[in-house]
Automatic annotation (TrEMBL):
Top-level taxon of origin: Bacteria
PROSITE patterns reported for this sequence: ABC_TRANSPORTER_1 (PS00211), ABC_TRANSPORTER_2 (PS50893)
UniProt name for this protein: ABC transporter ATP-binding protein
One Pfam family recorded for the sequence: ABC_tran
Amino acid sequence: MLQVNNITFGYSKNKIVLDNFNFTLQKGEHLCVMGESGCGKSTLLKAIYGLLDLQKGTIFWNENQVLGPEFHLVPGMDFFKYVAQDFDLMPYISVSENIKKFLSRFYPEESEARTQELLDVIEMKAFENTKVKNLSGGQKQRVAIARALANEPELILLDEPFGQIDNFKKNSLRRRLFKYLKDKNIACIVATHDKNDALSFADQLIIIRNNKILANNNPKEIYNNPTEKYIAALFDDVNEIVIDNKNHLLYPHQIKIVEKSDISATVLNSYFKGAYWLIEAEVENQIVFLNHFEELENGKEINLKIC
Ligand SMILES: Nc1ncnc2c1ncn2[C@@H]1O[C@H](COP(=O)(O)OP(=O)(O)OP(=O)(O)O)[C@@H](O)[C@H]1O
């Protein structure tokens, strides 16, 4: 189990980035960390991996304390793997050689089988003999993930793991990778801007704002009951509106157009979203966004219902 006990860290004394963070993660569980750019997601991953000397607090993996560079010649903990945003691969050797570097040379058959297994997880079999310097950013990102898994870690830390990968590949890679980690009971912490990493694959979600943990719960609970606009806005467009003196925090799919209701609105714009249209409308001098199956004419009067 990972125990993060009241840790505080800043790159300088008067600018705290992680303010009194406190949480646990069980073996094999997946945690997503979300929050606006610069809120401290990468810094949290670095602290957990042992790349930073904390100002306060402790981090434990079972009975082992994670200690920072002050205590280690080579920073980083053996039982963790960390895939940073800059990958750190060896450019002049092939994809499979990059993975094999982390496997034992004394068992070449096992090493080859494991490399093939990981090439399959990252869907890079066709590139096994390609030099890393000739890969795209997204392909390098996938090799970095495979390399981190070569020597099975107990916990893998992934910083924006699919940030450079196109949507088509991203979805299938995400499914393969998270299933692989679950099958092998490898715990995982993902820093991400992508709600899909959290909603479909995480057991636990932490939201950071202003250097503090704002929410820590299962993703469904956080999505369904956002306590503030900052949280809801990480998942979708969000409406914060007052109707009949009552405050509402609503996702666009929670507002429907009906024949008759007490809430009348005027259409301002329709945005094509593929499977639906996002309608921008005005209600009592407030702007609302709602999902609808067809485009509407600007200026059209509509009636709304909150679901
Ligand atoms: N090496 C560093 N030295 C000084 N300040 C840093 C350093 N790395 C990050 N920071 C600062 O710490 C804060 C948190 O940065 P961090 O990279 O952890 O944010 P993040 O949430 O991962 O952002 P993003 O989503 O944009 O990747 C930012 O204000 C950043 O400028």
